[in-house]
Specification:
The chain is an alpha+beta fold and 122 residues long. The chain has three helices and five strands. The protein has a three-stranded mixed β-sheet. A two-stranded antiparallel ribbon has the order 4-5. It starts with 5 loop residues before the first helix and ends with a strand.
């Protein structure tokens, strides 16, 4: 899932048109942390690449929207990055692109057997 909570889904809906306009795909949106949360947004080009300059451009493009909409009531840190080497697989196409690779999966809630962490290959 690219976004899990209602807040993350709302933020994804706000920033996705901007990402598309810049030729980017949003991989994941997460709000993490406590007193001063971090809004983590991972994005990439369709070919999987993402430069530091593109991260900065995307960050500058979404900041006014986030300020105007104010989805997070408190002060927060904005982190825009590429998915990196330990990328989360959040879209159906991600799994197709990584067939044959080793993966580690962590569920949000334990399965029927009480396990949350799994290891295997796509």
């Amino acid at each position: 899932m690219r976004a899990q909570s209602e807040l993350e889904i709302r933020i994804l809906d706000m920033i996705e048109p901007v990402a598309a306009g810049l030729g980017l795909d949003v991989v994941r949106v997460r709000v993490m942390g406590g007193q001063t949360p971090t809004l983590q947004i991972m994005a990439e080009q369709p070919d999987g690449s993402m430069s530091v300059a593109q991260c900065a451009k995307f960050s500058r493009a979404i900041s006014p929207i986030l300020e105007a909409e104010d989805p997070i009531a408190t002060e927060y840190h904005l982190e825009v990055s590429s998915p990196g080497i330990d990328r989360p697989l959040t879209r159906a196409g991600d799994f197709a692109n990584w067939v044959g690779h080793e993966i580690k999966v962590e569920l949000g809630t334990p399965g029927p057997d009480g396990r949350k962490r799994f290891h295997g290959w796509i």
